[in-house]
Structure to design on (371 residues):
């Protein structure tokens, strides 16, 4: 059993709330920590405000209800719990949940049968990376009953396997790029003049011989160097086909994000407000903010977790986002995760996201050479 370490920096948020030292535990004595842990675990399990009598029975502490009420008052003053208008019990705030996941929760490995289920799903054949990632977002949704998300890296994040040119009408040609992960990109280029089939074949043969196995950014850098070298073999062989090479290796389109299981979120009481759901579903449709959040997560190691307003996006204020990066060939390629209500079983969801990211990286490493 391992205690969860801090998952994401929230120094600014806690400094603004005046409870910076809570992350290190200095402001909470062992009794307060135990009561907060018990209250949050009870709330996450049942979704109801937790009263002092319930805490007295389930905390395992030999203290009176009056003492518990005093501790609860202190925790409420710190902003870690709150009293709903309709109940004398307390519920955790976003700040309370943050302290819980950063320093109070205990994580266990996934059960053997659940891990085996994930491994079986990854053993299924996938046509290319996008097919694999689509399956991953669906898998995360099915296992957690939340929305599963995964970013799709640009094709040029993977090494080039093969390039070919096909003449179209006039001065247009079709560029076919096949990458190491099985993805195929087709690009149509408009050239300055019509090139003969022999020139296109010569260009393709040279590029395949010299640059197969490299990523597009590496190819562009090498092409630039060779183009600047007077009398280089590339200048001699390709001459008029320079434009073909330059256009063929232009940067690819922006990365994308795949979302599965959005409708799962309609079944949670915490997200049942129609205006909130509409805003959330519009964010899924636009993808821009969600993609920005996930790309930020991909730049940091390990699991990152945003509770409520911590994400910085209003549409996710009532949600928790749990993410982990994945990669291959020694490079980070993106991030995956789940989006659900803030009342979730963090001790189960976090290991699921961790394990899925590791299995996806393993699957991609089987087709992408290590750098």
């Amino acid at each position: 059993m391992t205690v969860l370490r801090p998952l994401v920096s929230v120094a600014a948020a806690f400094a603004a709330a005046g409870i910076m030292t809570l992350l290190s535990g200095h402001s909470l004595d062992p009794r307060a920590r135990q009561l907060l842990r018990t209250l949050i675990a009870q709330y996450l399990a049942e979704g109801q405000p937790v009263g002092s009598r319930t805490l007295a029975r389930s905390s395992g502490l030999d203290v009176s209800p009056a003492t518990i009420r005093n501790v609860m008052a202190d925790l409420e003053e710190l902003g870690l719990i709150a009293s709903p208008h309709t109940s004398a019990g307390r519920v955790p705030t976003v700040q309370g949940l943050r302290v819980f996941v950063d320093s109070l929760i205990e994580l266990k490995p996934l059960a053997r049968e659940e891990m085996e289920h994930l491994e079986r799903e990854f053993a299924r054949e996938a046509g290319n990376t996008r097919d694999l990632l689509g399956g991953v977002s669906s898998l995360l949704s099915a296992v957690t009953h939340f929305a599963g998300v995964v970013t799709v890296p640009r094709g040029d994040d993977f090494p080039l396997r093969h390039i070919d040119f096909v003449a179209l009408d006039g001065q247009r040609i079709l560029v076919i790029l096949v990458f190491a992960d099985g993805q195929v990109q087709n690009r149509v280029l408009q050239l300055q003049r019509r090139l003969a089939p022999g020139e296109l074949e010569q260009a393709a043969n040279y590029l395949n011989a010299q640059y197969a196995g490299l990523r597009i950014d590496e190819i562009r850098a090498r092409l630039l160097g060779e183009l600047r070298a007077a009398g280089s073999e590339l200048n001699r062989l390709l001459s008029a086909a320079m434009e073909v090479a330059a256009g063929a290796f232009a940067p690819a389109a922006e990365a994308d994000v795949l979302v599965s299981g959005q409708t799962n979120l309609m079944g949670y009481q915490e997200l049942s407000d129609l205006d909130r759901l509409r805003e959330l579903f519009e964010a899924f449709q636009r993808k821009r903010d969600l993609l920005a959040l996930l790309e930020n997560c991909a730049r940091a190691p390990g699991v990152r977790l945003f509770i409520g307003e911590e994400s910085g996006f209003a549409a996710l204020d009532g949600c928790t986002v749990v993410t982990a990066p994945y990669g291959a060939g020694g490079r980070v390629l993106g991030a995956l995760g789940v989006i659900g209500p803030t009342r979730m079983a963090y001790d189960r969801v976090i290991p699921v996201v961790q394990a899925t990211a590791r299995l996806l990286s393993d699957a991609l490493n089987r087709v992408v050479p290590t750098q």
